[in-house]
Amino acid sequence: MAACGRYAPSPTGRLHLGNLRTALLSWLITRLQGGRWLLRIDDLDTPRNRPGAEASIVDDLSWLGLHWDGPLIRQSERRGIYATVLSRLRRSGRLYPCRCSRRMLADISAPHGAAPVYPGFCRERAGGWGPLDGRLPSWRLRLSPGPLCWPEPLAEAGECCLDAATQVGDVVLRRADGFIAYHLATAVDELSLGITDVVRGEDLRSATAPQLAVMRELDGTPPRYWHLPLWRNAEGQRLSKRDGGQGLESLREQGLDAPAAVGLMAASLGLVPPGSRLSSRELLEELSLEQLRAVLMAPG
Ligand code: GLU
User: Fold this and answer.
1) What's the CA-to-centroid distance between 142 and ligand 1, angstroms?
2) With bands split at pLDDT 50, 70 and 90, how would you rate the model's confidence at 111?
3) 9 CB less than 6 Å from ligand 1?
4) pLDDT tier at 233 (50, 70, 90 boundaries)?
5) Which pLDDT does position 163 carry in this prediction?
6) In angstroms, what is the span from residue 104 Cα to ligand 1's centroid?
7) What is the predicted pLDDT for the residue at 178?
8) Helix (H), strand (E), coil (C) string for the chain
9) Which residue's alpha carbon is nearest to atom 8 within ligand 1?
């Protein structure tokens, strides 16, 4: 299958340098395989969307020379596809309605302090799909027991696995507020867009197993997942979108041009010496996929 990658930001604010470095790596990993690279805007969670964020994402990627193939894709314009998949899964009996509140789940998971794994309370409870006391249930996918494994080129073993029952738990595919859940939309998109390489920050590694579970239900082949180390500031904290000072705008204000910005991102990974200036195309021509993989796997 021809390679196809995507960059899939949520339009919740301006991208910071860490986000842009992920975009650069996603573009490089795809282009080094001669693949198509797509830009998808994950804008389903509308209350979190910020006006102007999508335009700034488009501007920043274009300024860096990270050009995508085909039209920009918005999840908000694909709601019909997600709804069709959801009804199919519901008809097949793989989903169940769940009325457990977030609060209740937080209470049971609090003592462990770890990411909560849904214990399956509503699995066997006969509950309707309609409103109760004015509230709708969320729709959960009943996970089959056993490991969920995905190809991970940056892992020593070449794959990562999580146990469905103890480490993942039944996944919400439609939220109680009626919103399509991120895991459902993302899994459907990776399959329907023919994505072979998902490149994203390692903070999203835990999202992979739920998405894989959905792909399995849909009889799809999962992509390879490249989970990248996050860019941390001098204090060891990860950059955040709220940290406006770490976006391209402030670099541009300091007089940096695109070759300097690409050089800065590439140097932060040790791909080029500090102070290098080069376009993203020049960086692409200097690298091989194997070399890039080795650098990304090196500790530190
Ligand atoms: N849109 C989400 C984010 O920006 C997920 C991205 C992804 O799956 O790559 O955090």
Assistant:
1) 24
2) low
3) yes
4) confident
5) 96
6) 27
7) 94
8) CCCEEEECCCCCCCCEHHHHHHHHHHHHHHHCCCCEEEEEECCCCHHHCCCCHHHHHHHHHHHCCCCCCCCCEEHHHCHHHHHHHHHHHHHCCCEEEECCCHHHHHHHHHHHCCCCCECCCCCCCCCCCCCECCECCEEEECCCCCEEEEECCCCCCCEEEEEHHHHHECEEEECCCCCECHHHHHHHHHHHCCCCEEEEEHHHHHHHHHHHHHHHHCCCCCCEEEEECCCECCCCCECCCCCHHHEHHHHHHCCCCHHHHHHHHHHCCCCCCCCCCCCHHHHHHHCCHHHHHHHHHCCC
9) 8
